[in-house]
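User: I'm preparing a small set of examples for a lab meeting where we compare how different chains pack in three dimensions. I only have the primary sequence for this one, and I'd like the structure in token form so I can line it up with the others. Please keep the answer compact; I'll paste it straight into my notes.
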Amino acid sequence: MSSMLRLLTILIIGSSLAIAGSDTDVINFVKKKLSQNRGLKIKSIEVAEKLPIPGVKGWSAYVVEADLELTRDKKTRKIGFETILFVSKNLITTELIDRKTGMDIRSIIQPKLPDDIYSESHLIYGNPDAEHKLILFSDPLCPFCRMYVPELLKAVKQNPDKIALFYYHLPLSAIHPASDTLVRVMEVAKLRGRKDVVDKMYSIKIDPELKDEKKILKIVEKETGMKITPQELHEKRIEKIILHDRITARKMLVTGTPTIFADGKKDITREKYKSFIKK
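Assistant: Understood. Below is the structure token output for the 279-residue chain.
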């Protein structure tokens, strides 16, 4: 999550309860919180979806979208922002916790999947008409991803008729800046027909905090044999892919990695794909 989105989330969470009554109350609640930032101009706010919460009576999850403009140091940039609010007949809250399990209900809420989520441009392994479809949001330098993703890739490659894997980049650049360059390397490699490089990015030996693109590319060349120029990393088609993936993650309220969806539903266990193989 970017620092700006984190700030916006904090602004909304700042006062976690309010009186509810309608969509207008929800929108006004968000407006009130965001308006606390003087450099922020609200262009629009709307309730994008209302979702039932499995096993929780009397509450609904509201997915709220906002288009904003942030001005800092005389520079203005546009920001798209999504959040989830939990609404009952009389209350609005930003957090809802299962008292028995301690689970944050936010983790099971899932907005509608974008129409193009299964586009072939994001198919990394498996046949597009496979029996089961997985959507993965990942960062090659995320420690848990480095443990989890190689095993997942191997399973999909060994079972292409059972599983198709659609891969989306979510580099957590604030934590490990080098990942922003590596995801671009992965896209250049795909364009060259080198999908094996995707796998190698999960084992590449590199300082996650390295920011120098040229140094990163030298390491990539040493470990993969593939030479890439900084200019290639920033071609319009690469920029378009990276931006698209970030927007998709935002709209699906994905902020952490790895996040996986199995047959259209968020899999918080990340193990559902194993049952597909056993069939």
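A couple of notes for your slides: The domain at 120-278 is CATH 3.40.30.10 (Glutaredoxin). DSSP finds nine helices and ten strands in the chain.

User: Perfect, thanks.
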